[in-house]
User: Which sequence fits this backbone?
């Protein structure tokens, strides 16, 4: 044992001084008088009532995990008997939330003025994951402990609400990490206005916080929505006070729980799903968990997995069908549109309207799109021997245009066959994004430069881009099927189609009418001067062999 004479008051003074510059907890144990002195912050984290107290051994042993008590007692006895100079142990301490965490406790056994002391420090092992230094909040692990403690002791119900900053990544990139931290502090301060206990508000990974709220009296998830609104209003007022030197919005997702039924992981998954839904639905809002929507989402993921498997295993179950496009003037075949079909082991036959959005979501449309272009080009190459002016229409998704090197893929795949580029028309559906992206415009110009033609698909259904008609980017306007159904009976449809055809012709564009099913519809659109017709009247989409049988003989 080290013998050095010093003053306890002086020691306390140093302890208080040093504790401010360390995340560890400092301590002085006085064996002779059975007293203990700890850093002041110790009571915030561990289940000790005071930071300075007598009857130290028994009080300390109450916060030590029962399985670790013997080990610690032995070490302390050896130290106080002078058989040990150093104390260096890892054991578990009880925290304020009733759970145990591992600590590392190191110190020196000292004698001063005949009094035996242990002087040292305690650090929490894995402290980084329990605390967030920026916001001063507990992290997810603690939330999990709290939830599991709740589940042990009572059948509680309530909700978990995740709150996230919208576009946090961009905010960080644009204004720096310091602003990002500031935003998180504004958010947590706002939540603290309404949530006072430390074990209700947690810092989650990324830009998210979690509010854990067991129902006290009335069980109503509307509480989550109201809380969200109050937090949002508070943040708005802070932003206003700061004269808009900082601006952000928040989204939230809340899920109800019943500790008897839901595991922590289920609850967290549900809340995350709702937050994700809030962001997808336009941000700056709070969504409540909906089990039906979640089921749909999980099913979608299942289909996406099967699509991925089929694509990686040689495009298993995919087949291109072809629908004829006729010239109504002479009833001659002008070309065809390539339409994808998928018949999988797991889901059977599924329509493209269902699986194309999933392919787009996962960017799987890019590899499949290449396969489609290659197959359509091979088929086109074959059919031009029967019909020299044959034109193949190939659909392009917006994702292929903005997220892949589409021009390179098209040129490579089509270049393998001898049919020249003017045998191909690429169909794109009009979207708002298309208009807003200069990159899209460049891609279109490349297509035209290479002698391909472009068609505006589903014209009239979405955001009708008359600008593209005027700029001569497109060669063909494909009028959507919804205008054609009963065109012979619906005067408004007749007028719309008449107007579109006139305008397109004035601008030097061709018009293809989709979805013509009956003789009456055909004579109507013929009368209006349509250049091409595609519809069940002339033929449904069919496989290569059937197409050859029905249209090329
Ligand atoms: P779309 O490009 O507008 O294709 C025309 C759709 O209308 C096809 O549906 C076709 O079968 C259907 N159709 C044609 N004539 C008639 C008719 O007279 N009556 C009726 N009731 N329907 C008719 P399909 O094949 O189910 O394709 C649906 C959509 O899926 C396509 O609409 C297109 O947006 C997308 N799609 C299909 N194949 C591909 C592809 O290879 N690539 C991409 N990116 N999208 C594709
Ligand atoms: Ca199309
Ligand atoms: Ca269409």
Assistant:
């Amino acid at each position: 044992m080290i013998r050095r004479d010093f003053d306890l008051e002086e020691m306390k003074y140093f302890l208080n001084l040093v504790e401010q510059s360390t995340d560890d907890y400092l301590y002085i144990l006085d064996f002779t008088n059975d007293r203990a002195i700890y850093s002041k912050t110790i009571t915030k984290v561990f289940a000790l009532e005071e930071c300075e107290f007598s009857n130290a051994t028994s009080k300390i042993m109450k916060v030590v995990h029962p399985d670790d008590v013997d080990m610690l007692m032995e070490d302390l006895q050896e130290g106080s008997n002078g058989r040990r100079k150093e104390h260096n142990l890892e054991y578990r301490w009880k925290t304020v939330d009733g759970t145990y965490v591992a600590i590392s406790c190191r110190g020196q056994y000292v004698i001063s003025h005949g009094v035996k002391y242990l002087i040292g420090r305690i650090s929490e092992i894995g402290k980084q994951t329990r605390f967030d230094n920026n916001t001063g909040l507990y992290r997810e692990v603690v939330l999990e402990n709290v939830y599991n403690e709740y589940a042990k002791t009572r059948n509680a119900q309530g909700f978990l609400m995740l709150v996230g900053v919208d576009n946090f990544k961009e905010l960080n990139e644009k204004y720096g990490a310091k602003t990002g931290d500031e935003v998180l502090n504004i958010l947590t301060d706002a939540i603290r206005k309404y949530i006072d206990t430390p074990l209700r508000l947690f810092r989650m990974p990324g830009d998210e916080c979690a509010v854990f709220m067991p129902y006290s009296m009335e069980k109503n998830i509307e509480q989550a929505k109201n809380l969200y609104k109050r937090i949002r209003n508070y943040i708005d007022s802070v932003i206003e006070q700061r004269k808009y030197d900082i601006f952000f919005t928040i989204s939230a997702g809340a899920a109800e729980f019943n500790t008897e039924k839901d595991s922590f992981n289920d609850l967290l998954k549900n809340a995350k799903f709702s937050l994700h839904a809030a962001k997808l639905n336009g941000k700056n809002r709070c969504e409540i968990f909906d089990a039906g929507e979640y089921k749909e989402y999980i099913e979608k993921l299942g289909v996406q997995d099967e699509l991925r498997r089929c694509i990686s295993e040689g495009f298993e179950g995919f087949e291109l069908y072809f629908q004829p496009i006729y010239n109504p003037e002479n009833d001659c075949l002008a070309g065809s549109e390539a339409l994808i079909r998928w018949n999988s082991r797991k889901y059977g036959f599924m329509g493209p309207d269902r699986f194309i959005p999933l392919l787009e979501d996962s960017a799987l449309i890019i590899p499949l799109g290449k396969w489609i272009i290659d197959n359509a080009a091979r088929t086109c190459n074959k059919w031009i021997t029967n019909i020299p002016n044959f034109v193949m229409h190939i659909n392009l998704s917006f994702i292929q245009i903005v997220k892949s090197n589409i021009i390179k893929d098209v040129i490579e795949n089509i270049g393998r066959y001898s049919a020249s580029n003017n045998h191909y028309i690429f169909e794109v559906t009009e979207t708002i994004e298309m208009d807003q992206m200069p990159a899209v415009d460049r891609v279109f110009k490349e297509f035209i430069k290479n002698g391909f033609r472009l068609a505006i698909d589903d014209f009239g259904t979405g955001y009708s881009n008359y600008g593209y008609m005027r700029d001569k980017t497109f060669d063909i306007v494909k009028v959507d099927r919804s205008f054609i159904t009963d065109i012979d009976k619906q005067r408004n449809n007749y007028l719309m189609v008449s107007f579109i055809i006139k305008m397109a012709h004035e601008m030097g564009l061709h018009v293809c009418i989709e979805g013509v099913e009956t003789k009456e519809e055909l004579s109507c659109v013929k009368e209006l001067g349509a250049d091409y017709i595609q519809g069940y009247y002339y033929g449904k989409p069919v496989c290569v062999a059937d197409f050859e049988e029905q249209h090329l003989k």
Remarks:
- The pocket of calcium ion (ligand 2) is lined by residues 337, 395, 427, 457 (CB under 6 Å).
- The mean pLDDT is 92.
- The radius of gyration is 35 Å.
- The CA atoms of residues 109 and 431 lie 75 Å apart.
